[in-house]
Amino acid sequence: MSDEIKRATNIQNGTPTNFIRQIIDEDLKSGKYNGRVHTRFPPEPNGYLHIGHAKSICLNFGLAESYPGGKCNLRFDDTNPVKEEEEFVESIKEDIRWLGFDSEDRLYFASDYFEQMYEYAVQLIKTGKAYVDDLTAEQIREYRGTLTEPGKESPYRNRNVDENLDLFRRMRAGEFPDGAKVLRAKIDMSHPNLNMRDPVMYRILHASHHRAGDTWCIYPMYDWAHGLEDSIEGITHSICTLEFEDHRPLYDWFLDQLGVYHPQQIEFARLNLNYTVMSKRKLLRLVRENYVSGWDDPRMPTISGLRRRGYSPQAIREFAERIGVAKSNSVVDIALLEHCLREDLNKRAQRVMAVLDPLKIVITNYPEDTVEEMEAVNNPEDESTGTRTIPFSRELYIERNDFREEAPRKWFRLAPGKEVRLKHGYYITCNEVIRNDKNEIIELRCTYDPGSRGGWTEDGRKVKGTLHWVSAAHAVKAEVRLYENLFFAENPESAPDGGDFTANINPDSLKILKDCRVEPGLKNAKAGEYYQFLRQGYFVADAKDHSTDHPVFNRTVGLRDSWAKIEKKLK
RNA sequence: UGGGGCGUAGCCAAGUGGUAAGGCACCGGGUUUUGGUUCCGGCAUUCGUAGGUUCGAAUCCUGCCGCCCCAGCCA
Fold first, then answer.
1. Distance B73 C1' – A255 CA (angstroms)
2. pLDDT 10s digits, A143-158
3. Using one digit for the tens of pLDDT, what is the confidence trace for A440-493?
4. CA to C1' distance (Å), from A329 to B4
5. CB atoms within 10 A of CB A234
6. From the CA of A498, how many Å to the C1' of B50?
């Protein structure tokens, strides 16, 4: 088989295939849903979305986009009023929009179906498939049995239909306190799958719902509600994560008993990333216990955190594409996410010069009161972005770590007697090192070659080192925040001596530099704009703290650094 | 010791009886006014393991091993 044909077997329209696409393709072929493809993304509004949710969003919306006539609903699965809030609804909507997806006119809420769900429950009671149980939560747990032993039937299991109907109506009417009664499905207390041992369908909760207010005091459980939501909306493929595999028999059972439209549930493995925690519970702890500044802290794996860090939606979507969709539990290397980020930002980020740790240099043979406007390319990857000018003068700042008094092997940055290129500037040679009384280097005296204007000569001279710089008199002061992984352990969950994941928090995950100098044009930077600080990395003007008076830039990700590797090897 | 899943390179992941795609990471080298980008090359005689079927097995069968999930009135 030729490579081309081989590729064609698992790539369609440039989209890699996966087992879910194969199922859909087969369903399309057999006409199972009359050619429809209709998915949904069903978040519970009880927290902020994270990169794992992004995988699911990209999958569900992406599937819909890639099939003719495909649709994807956004549906809030708001069946538990005690955990859910309007704030989360809004943040989730914003994150999905930011990722570039649109549910159009299909924004739904499970709470809008409560009346219909109630009717369906009545129907199940009438056919003897559901009953009101008076057992306490604790008793229900005891009666359920264990993984290896069957459960036993509740003494209330055989109430007659009329009594069940009456009790259920009175549950809804608010006649009983929280926990006094539940509605249960009558299935099989000795079923090997615990989910089938008479699962609870409704519980009493005298709680105000963020949308339904106080209309209800009974709320449906996930297993009962979710299939109905899918059915009502005409979903074809209901995609969820692996832990719901055990729930599928129940999903099917409810729909079959009711005899209603029956979507199919398909499970895939959720995303895990190394050096990251992903559970809502743990993320909540990071916020509550102030390990981070909030849900949108740039070190958080939340969509809002990544956005503030400077990630682009395109990078996240590309990442979601590349990790694939399968059923095996896996941990993706965060290096892949960073690769997708750099790949996208390389094409789009404007190049600028910024000195994070300034070291002054004086060009002794450059005229004192002259300022030259040097032309600089905005983005070598995209000519249409044009050029800008930056001022060059006698006194400049360069990066302190671009100078070594004793140059190691393969060092081609600045050192005494060495010539380097100032990007878009001139060639300079270092002649003298000035120190203060503490023996710290405070200044370098250099000379420049007037014939190297623009950073280039015609004599074919080889100058390998190129440094970034800013003009001391013209540069803008800025704060720069250097971010690294929040955890230093590849698997934050595995802490030594029974410690929890917080023991693996990286104390150096944020380093704040307050005395940086950036090129003058950056005083016009707008919050959220992507930049590449030449030779250093991608940075973004902080969405919350950046202002013209006080510029603040977050390091999104560093550039690949092959010098760091060489230096490591030299040691 | 019940039920449901999953084992292909350091990390993801294709592969569906015809002789191991691709990406990340890593390692060499070329180009380069970013030690960036880019380009070229390398990187699984073998698919958890042991048997069996077959002309032929990662793909089919059997046994074994390992890992994950399930005992919320959470989702």
1. 22
2. 999 999 999 999 999 9
3. 999 999 999 999 999 999 898 889 999 999 999 999 999 999 999 999 999 999
4. 14
5. 14
6. 38
Using C1' positions and the CA of A404, the closest nucleotide is B35
Query: Which nucleotides of strand B lie under 7 Å from a protein CB?
Result: 1-8, 10-16, 19, 21-28, 33-38, 67-75
Name the nt closest to A197 by C-alpha to C1'.
B71
For residue A29, which phi and psi values (nearest 5 degrees)? -65, -40
Among residues of chain A, what percentage have pLDDT more than 70?
97
pTM of the model: 0.96
Cα A332 from Cα A277, distance rounded (Å): 12
* Burial class of residue A360, CB neighbours in 10 A (0-12, 13-18, 19+): middle
DSSP A110: G
Q: Is the CB of A55 under 7 A from strand B?
A: no
Rounded to the nearest 10°, the torsion over CA A50, A51, A52, A56 is 100
Phi, psi for A142 (deg, rounded to 5): -65, -45
Structure tokens at A20: 């879910």
Contact A211, A78 (CB under 8 A): yes
* Token digits of residue A526: 């707008």
Distances in Å between the Cα of A48 and the Cα atoms of A44, A53, A93, A375, A376 are 10, 9, 10, 44, 41
**Strand B at less than 7 A from CB of A241:** no
pLDDT level of residue A15 (50, 70, 90 thresholds) = low
> Is the Cβ atom of A1 within 7 Å of strand B at any atom?
yes
With contact defined as beta carbons under 8 Å apart, do A425 and A463 qualify?
A: no
- Rounded to the nearest 10 degrees, the angle between the axes of helix A222-232 and helix A248-258 is 60
The Cβ of residue A149 has, within 10 Å, a number of other Cβ atoms equal to: 9
Residue A253 CB-half CA count within 13 A: 21
pLDDT tens digits along A386-423: 999 999 999 999 999 999 999 999 999 999 999 999 99
Q: Is there a contact between A8 and A17 (Cβ–Cβ < 8 Å)?
A: no
Nucleotide nearest A196 (Cα, C1'): B3
Strand B lies under 7 A from the Cβ of residue A351: yes
Mean pLDDT of chain A: 96
| ipTM entry | 0.97
State the DSSP H helix or E strand holding residue A107, giving kind and residue range, or none if neither: strand A107-109
Q: Which residues of A are catalytic?
A: 44, 270, 280
State whether the beta carbon of A207 lies below 7 angstroms from any atom of strand B: no
Scan residues 132-191 of chain A and list those with Cβ within 7 Å of strand B.
135-137, 140-141, 144, 146-148, 178-179, 182
